[in-house]
């Protein structure tokens, strides 16, 4: 399917072309038509699937087709509620990008920065408001925001919203938007709380599901190093010394851990910054921009700080610590291998974390290949396929399940249109890949090659992908968290 088959208006088609998107992703293909018809929608999709365009494009089209009273200040007609500032900024950038040839005005509000620039923009009139819950309610209380004309309400990353303790704020916002509205709810996972929320919020929704959280993107090459906790930093430095790791997002479980890792990398001469909840909004945005602009090679982050980070060309994700929730692992590694590009995920697992690794492998339904014989190998964790006397290559991956690993390392076209629509409005593409295609996104850089030995694969220098990134440069922001 092509974008022009989605009944999009010319200014939006032109913007999509400007972004160099060739074909809609599965979530876009499935969500755009019913949203244009005014239907409510329940979308089970994580970031990286193209879900922002899946709601931004039809909303822009709906709003553009309504007449605007030029004599009055524009009322807010669409509200997008999202849990983090980073995500809010990215959604705003998407609305700007896809709406560049329309006259729709957007505004983003989030806490931790001065409110004046936000309120000035609001008072000039905006059509689309993208907001995090706290600052939104704050500005509503101060009467800068009136939600009575909202006709389209999007609740983005609903599971994360509840995880982060915004449940009460979300309920307050829901009470303030008109009952007669179109509602779109997106969530990466569908625990029972979200299902309950969806039942209360949505009217006869179309259900769309892509890339369920348990399916890790096939273009991501995953591996695990068994290593002692105390050796993790040195191991990370040794891997990052390899210039083939062009850009790396390193996840740690704690804020202190993030600072300690960043310090060790900086000491080793690797350009690094850390982002986490204790850093000011300005510092976080600055670090993110430096990373996107390639001024630094490594960004160390905690899960919440990194949620929704959209970096077009991220080659490596490191799980410095394994998360206790397997879903978090899937979210983390989903930061690479985006938009149909390839990426590498490297996980460090110490003795205490083996139980978490088991959980991850159970969720994703496959074994993660083990990198053996590195300098800091845990004695007892080497799989039996490699004998101790054997001559060892540094960083040798031993696939635990060769079939799935070989499958995962093949070049692939990311477009997967094979999923069928069902007539009862439940459109499910479970197991499908993200399904992106940019007209110059390269997938030719796959670096993993089979070793002479049938059992082993050597981790080779991996050249990341070559897509045309959207220009997302942002000025550093000031303010407190
Ligand atoms: P999202 O899931 O909305 O965070 O999108 C992830 C990335 O995919 C963003 O960098 C988008 O610019 C990009 N993207 C969205 N739709 C498409 C498409 N149809 N083709 C290629 N890239 C896309």
Heterogens: adenosine monophosphate
Tell me the helix content. 25-40%
How many whole angstroms does the radius of gyration measure?
A: 23 Å
Which structural class do the helices and strands define? alpha/beta
Number of domain units: 2
Distance between the termini: 43 Å
> How many β-strand stretches?
18
- Which spans of ≥5 residues are poorly predicted at pLDDT below 50? 381-435, 440-481
Largest sheet composition: 10 strands, mixed
Name the CATH superfamily assignment of the largest domain. Answer: P-loop containing nucleotide triphosphate hydrolases
Widest beta sheet: strand line-up: 10-11-9-12-13-8-14-15-18-17
- Shape verdict: globular
Mean pLDDT: 78
Q: Examine the coordinates and then state which fold CATH places here, giving the name of the CATH topology of the largest domain.
A: Rossmann fold
CATH class of the largest domain equals Alpha Beta
Strand composition percent: 15-25%
Question: How is this fold's topology laid out?
Answer:
Layout: H1 10-18, H2 26-36, E1 41-44, H3 51-64, E2 78-81, H4 85-98, E3 106-109, H5 116-124, E4 128-131, H6 133-141, E5 152-155, H7 158-163, H8 167-176, E6 182-187, H9 192-201, E7 206-210, E8 220-226, H10 232-240, E9 248-251, H11 255-267, E10 272-275, H12 281-292, E11 298-301, H13 303-306, E12 316-319, H14 326-333, E13 343-349, H15 354-364, E14 370-372, E15 396-398, H16 402-408, E16 426-429, E17 449-450, E18 457-458
Parallel strand pairs: 1-6, 1-7, 2-4, 2-5, 3-4, 5-6, 7-16, 8-13, 8-14, 9-11, 9-12, 10-11, 12-13
Antiparallel strand pairs: 14-15, 15-18, 17-18
Helix pairs in contact: 2-3, 3-4, 6-8, 14-15
The chain binds adenosine monophosphate (AMP).
